């Protein structure tokens, strides 16, 4: 989120995010039970469930991104949900109930399906797609400097905030265990 969070803060009226907090997790369905196996262990799966519930319940997008960024910046993201919800002004009880119950499991399963069924297949995270498009060059540019990349996409009439930047010719960035799909308008 190192690039996404500040860029969204400056250009949110031009961005529509679709966060898919699944990362490199795997899932297995057996006898009607869904099990998740996350790259960094069970705490990562818990954080993914909390973030998936936040995608459904935390609005507007700025508040959602503030919540996700807050949790991921903590030493123990799995324990950060309640204080971060309080900090951004959202109802932790709703997120906690969702993430600890069948709704959270179902929502994370749906995120997993979307991640696994994506074409072309997602090979790594973060994975960035803009206006339905992805390639390695764009991925590298957005990981370097997302803000300038988005400003370039908004030409020939970029917003004023894009004209007040100090490093011309650079392009874009993002980090984290999620991927996002974005629409630039």
TrEMBL record:
InterPro entries per record: Interferon-induced_GILT
Subcellular location: Secreted
Keywords associated with the record: Glycoprotein, Secreted, Signal
One protein family per Pfam: GILT
Gene Ontology terms, MF aspect: oxidoreductase activity, acting on a sulfur group of donors, disulfide as acceptor
Organism superkingdom: Eukaryota
Gene Ontology CC terms, in alphabetical order: extracellular region
Keyword Signal listed: yes
Family note: Belongs to the GILT family.
Name this polypeptide is given: Putative gamma-interferon inducible lysosomal thiol reductase
Source organism of this protein record: Rhipicephalus microplus (Cattle tick)
């Amino acid at each position: 989120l190192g690039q996404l969070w500040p860029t969204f803060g400056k250009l949110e009226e031009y961005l529509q995010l679709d966060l898919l907090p699944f990362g490199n997790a795997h899932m297995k369905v057996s006898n009607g039970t869904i099990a998740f196996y996350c790259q960094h262990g069970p705490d990562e799966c818990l954080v993914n469930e909390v973030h998936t519930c936040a995608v459904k319940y935390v609005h507007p997008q700025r508040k959602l991104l503030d919540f996700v960024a807050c949790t991921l910046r903590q030493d123990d993201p799995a324990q950060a949900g309640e204080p971060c919800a309080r900090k951004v002004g959202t109802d932790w009880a709703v997120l906690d109930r969702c993430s600890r119950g069948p709704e959270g499991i179902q929502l994370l399963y749906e995120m997993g399906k979307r991640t696994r069924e994506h074409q072309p297949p997602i090979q790594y995270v973060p994975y960035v797609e803009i206006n339905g498009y992805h390639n390695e060059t764009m991925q590298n540019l957005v990981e370097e400097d997302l803000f300038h990349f988005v400003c370039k996409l908004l030409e020939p009439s970029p917003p004023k905030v894009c004209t007040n930047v100090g490093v011309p010719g650079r392009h874009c960035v993002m980090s984290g265990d999620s991927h996002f799909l974005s629409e630039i308008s």
